Amino acid sequence: MLPRRLWYGFLVFALLSAWVCPVAAQDVDEDPIAQLVQSLPTRVKVGQLVMVTFPGTDVSAAAEITALIQDAHIGGVWLRPEHGNFGAPALSPADVISLTNQLQRLTGVPAYPAVGPQPEIATFGGTSFPLFVAVDPYIDGLPVTAFVSDTTRIPLPMALGATWNRALAEAAGQVVGQELSGLGINFLLGPSLDVLDTPQMGDPSAIGTTAFGGHPYWVGEMGKAFVRGVHQGSDDRMAVIPRNFPGLGSADRPVETETPTVQKTLEQLQETELAAFAAVAHSAPGIESVADGMLVTHVRYQGFQGNITQSTRPISLDGPALSLALSGMEAWRTAGGILVADSLGMRSLRRFNDPREATFNARQVARDALLAGNDLLILDTFSVDEAWDGHFANIRDTLDFLAQLYESDSTVQARVDEALYRVLSLKLRIAPRLSLDDVARSAAPEVLAEIFGRGGGVNAQVASSALTRLAPAADDLLTTPPQEGARVVVFAQESDVTFNGGAASRPILTADTIVQTLLRLYGPQGTGQVRTSNVQSFSFSELRTAVENPSPLIEDLAFPIVNSLQRAQWLILATTGNGSDSESVVVLQAFLGELADLVDARIVVLNFGPPYALDSTHVSKIDQYYALYCPGEAFVQAGIQALFRDLPAVGASPVSIPALNYVLASQLEPDPGQIIGLTVIDGSGQEMASEEIQDIRKDDVLQLRTTVIKDRNGHPVPNGTPVQFTLAYPQEDRRDYIATTTKDGVAFTSVNLDRVGQLDITVESAPAPPLFHLQLTIREESVIMISITPTPEPQEPTPTPTPIPEIPAAKALPEPLRLPAPHGPGLLLWGVSGGIVSAFLGFLWARERLRGLARAVQFALWGAIGGL
Q1: pLDDT 10s digits, 192-206
Q2: Cβ contact 482:488 at 8 Å
Q3: Which of 96, 510, 573, 706 is 20 to 30 Å from 596 by CA-CA measure?
Q4: What are the φ and ψ backbone dihedral angles of 765, each rounded to 5 degrees?
């Protein structure tokens, strides 16, 4: 047997050979992109494979980012609010467009008129290409559009997941694509396709509401719809790169600070984490619902890498493991799907490189990420101390190093050419002429008015459809809404997202937003149910003082807060629930644990974050508990309307909630209370008319389709749900079974009518029982078919061979009075009981009247005989 190292080396060689295939297989004489790759200077090739970050908005001739674009020919930039790229707090769309246009002009790509002959890629002789301009769609629980005025504050993925509506996910994606593309953004580092299959109160992965949900099928479906919407909204001018491949949902810690480990087998990873990514890689890139690439995360996976040790590299640097993770997506990868390595300057990667964090080998990290199979490398905070001087110095040094390797190492040369082929192919998809006109955007007022701030209707639909009532469980347990004159106290988590080095911030949620929405809808400007003077608001920081000092003196800071709590009739607690160590969760848990029992008020929790941050005891102290999943204004309004019973809670949590014993896997099982029907269909899948059914004969093949099978939440069950058809032949005392699975909520089968006699067909999908019957009487010359659908009352199935005109129901008569009529064993028991009762009564009477035990026993015996 070969030594393990030789086997490992052989595997690496095979993988590298596979990487070369896409380029080597191209006929350079006929493939213009291959020609272009071969013609470019080494420095341009290497530069195109990196995407970098930079501080602020300075793109003057003296700026470092200008030199990297013009001299190093970098492939893209990542704009981040954290680095001040979105400038002042009141940045407008025109400001962002000005920045992105300036960045694109620095590349030196030519501008071509919109009319007249256009250059072909085969004759393109330049060495400059449009930039990828990237953003992350969500930053610390806020959409990136929250950092630009006059744009739509797009809903978070978990809110979309709670709607269970693909059309709404697609509509939200259209808003994202239209507005971000209008800003000059052409590279979206999202959405997240993480599967939160086992969410915990602590949320160790820190994914929260950036995940669509906890079931791989639905995460994949919502992800596909969102990707399709982004492509549509941007007119296919934006690359969509779902993040965290192959999945962070089961990570044991946040990826930013230390390399996490996912302890799942290969089979488990394929069933959960990988399934969602496979859904958006079902075909070649360029199709609307297909992702253009994947953002590879820095995580270690037992299923791909075996036993994890301190020296096990994250999958982003491990070629064999990354190749194994891509199993089943080879067609997508071969057709041009790119892999983007997440930030190579991330602290977790620096700590892996040197646990003491004293040094950072930038060259090694970049080389390993490239050779592992990544096509585009993100270089952010690319220095040991995260200083900008070191960041830019390391970028230049790393590009020089890779250029030298290209000239001296054939393996690196092949890998660079293959990666460049993918990168340029993607640039051609989003900028077909590789010109400035493809990527520059207009800031004309009339253009901006057509693009920005028009997604409010989508937000409102998502908010109302996602609204989920977590407690109470039943409608009849709901309390009446606040009445006129009720005293209402609002507490809200008022945390901010800081950016631009702490120089600016954006509030996630404010108490004033809650109060103003409450008064606008139900105050003097609205229905008048709430008086302005009866509404008070505080922050969670102030609530903390009350928890820490529940019996304050009048001069204490906590006194007015405790006094308000004691006088309140309604208490609204608004939280974003971001992590177990956040002030929001800690304060809310402390209040419910220590003060809730002392407050004589209705307690309402509006949760604008993940719904699993509280335990069962906490929830038991809440009168009304609503999950909104997103802190936008439309979601605040939905929460307030739900409190006043003006908006029904029709959403359902897309993740499990341990405190409520809400297990998502069980919720997505077929509803046992439904009746799964059967429909006869033709070869094209259309339901057959009754006239066509009458033409069915013996030896024909009967095509059947179930009705839509619903889960316990009332939505179609996931694809792959097991379904069993039972074929019963009563005259032969025989049963045949056909096992299949659902697709889009329905299942199909075919039955060969090859024997004369009776055939009874039923279908079940556990735990939904086989209630519907399709009875066939098969004769040589005809087939008679009867559908039998049971009704709740009476329980016996009622045959319904043909539709019957409706007849007005007669007035029901009262049931006649029926006396009990015992028989058999019941009659004997009745008689024995009567004898015992008569004996007992006779004994008591004789004992009392005749005063003798013997006489009493005698009367008891006569009583027993008489009773019998």
Answers
A1: 999 998 887 667 677
A2: yes
A3: 510
A4: -140, 95
